[in-house]
Specification:
The chain has three helices and six strands. The protein has 139 residues and is of the alpha+beta class. The relative contact order is 0.18.
Length: 139
């Protein structure tokens, strides 16, 4: 019985992270992209994905907070990011695929950083690359 419980516990621990991960296509619409401009309010440099929270003015002038999903920290490192590349108060321009549930959430393709550089956001979505002139497309 003890071996069975140990095996059951091990199975639960090893499958939990997989259940928490999701498919890009299940959550985001690659054909529904927008570019937002706003101020970083929070950065979560965590696995399996980074999260950036951005205050953006809506068409009525109200400030709304967007949750923007980026790639894994290791992917962002390879793209030239550091944990402090973006911090609260920084102004950014972000191209995102919108969430299918119509919430204020998106999966980032690219960021234009405060220093003017455009960087790939590590997106798992299609064509999620940044170009030198900040236009979406393959490098």
């Amino acid at each position: 019985m003890a071996k069975f419980l140990s095996a059951l516990a091990l199975a639960a621990l090893t499958t939990a992270p997989a259940a928490a991960h999701h498919s890009f296509a299940a959550e985001y619409d690659a054909n529904n992209q927008i570019t937002i401009v706003g101020t970083i309010t929070k950065v979560e440099w965590t696995n399996p994905h980074t999260w950036f929270y951005v205050d953006v003015r809506d068409p009525q002038g109200q400030v709304v907070n967007w949750a923007i999903e980026g790639g894994a920290p290791t992917v962002l490192y390879r793209e030239g990011w550091k944990p402090n590349s973006l911090k609260a108060g920084d102004q950014v321009t972000v191209t995102i695929a919108l969430a299918k549930d119509k919430s204020r959430k998106g999966n980032a393709y690219q960021f234009k950083l405060p220093d003017g550089r455009c960087v790939f956001a590590g997106s798992s979505g299609p064509s999620g690359a940044a170009t030198d002139n900040c236009t979406p497309g393959r490098r």
